[in-house]
């Protein structure tokens, strides 16, 4: 975007490129890492959970809880990234149809993008053991 006397202009290809690049990064890096961590560490018994030592059990429980928190944070990053990609596509489409986009229209586009991503996530199958997307 660049400042001009009559407002600003949007490089639609840059917006589309940003969305495509972010989507590619989420798909290539964050999502597979999340899935690998989930399969490797969450679905297997944690070390120390069957020991007689309460200190070791407490550490194992804390480790498992922190791992779940990390996975939840990664879920949030993937979700928010997908929302930004969808919003970029919505904004690019809106600018392609009109020269101006009000702040309220942008907020509406962001809400539509969030709803679309949420709907897509909920319709995906979930792992019955973890409740997470398969």
Labels describing this entry:
134 residues; mainly alpha; two-stranded antiparallel ribbon
Description:
The chain is mainly α. Helices cover 72% and strands 4% of the residues. It contains three helices and two strands. It has helices at residues 12-42, 54-97, 103-123, and strands at residues 2-4, 7-9. It has a two-stranded antiparallel ribbon with strand order 1-2. A hairpin with a 2-residue loop joins strand 1 (2-4) and strand 2 (7-9). Helix 1 (12-42) runs antiparallel to helix 2 (54-97) and helix 2 packs across helix 3 (103-123). The radius of gyration is 21 Å and the shape is elongated. It starts with a strand and ends in an 11-residue tail after the last helix.
The overall pLDDT, averaged over residues, is 76
Model regions low in confidence, pLDDT < 50 over at least 5 residues: none
Instruction: Give me the Rg, rounded.
Output: 21 Å
The backbone outline, from C-alpha atoms, is: elongated
Structural class: mainly alpha
* Element order: H for helix, E for strand: EEHHH
Helical amount: over 70%
Strand runs, count? 2
What fraction of residues sit in β-strands? Answer: under 5%
Q: Given the structure, what is the number of helices?
A: 3
Q: What strand line-up does the widest sheet have? A: 1-2
Distance between the termini: 39 Å
Largest sheet: 2 strands, antiparallel
In short:
The chain has 134 residues and is mainly α. The chain has 3 helices and 2 strands, in the order E-E-H-H-H.
């Amino acid at each position: 975007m660049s400042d001009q006397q009559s407002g600003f202009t949007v490089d639609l290809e840059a917006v589309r490129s940003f969305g495509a690049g972010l989507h590619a990064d989420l798909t290539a890096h964050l999502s597979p890492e999340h899935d690998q961590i989930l399969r490797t560490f969450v679905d297997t018994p944690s070390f120390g959970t069957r020991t007689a030592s309460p200190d070791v059990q407490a550490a194992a429980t804390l480790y498992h809880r922190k791992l779940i928190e990390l996975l939840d944070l990664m879920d949030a990053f993937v979700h928010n990234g997908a929302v930004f990609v969808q919003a970029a596509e919505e904004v690019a489409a809106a600018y392609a149809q009109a020269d101006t986009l009000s702040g309220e229209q942008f907020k509406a586009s962001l809400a539509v993008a969030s709803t679309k991503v949420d709907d897509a996530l909920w319709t995906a199958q979930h792992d019955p053991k973890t409740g997470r997307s398969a």
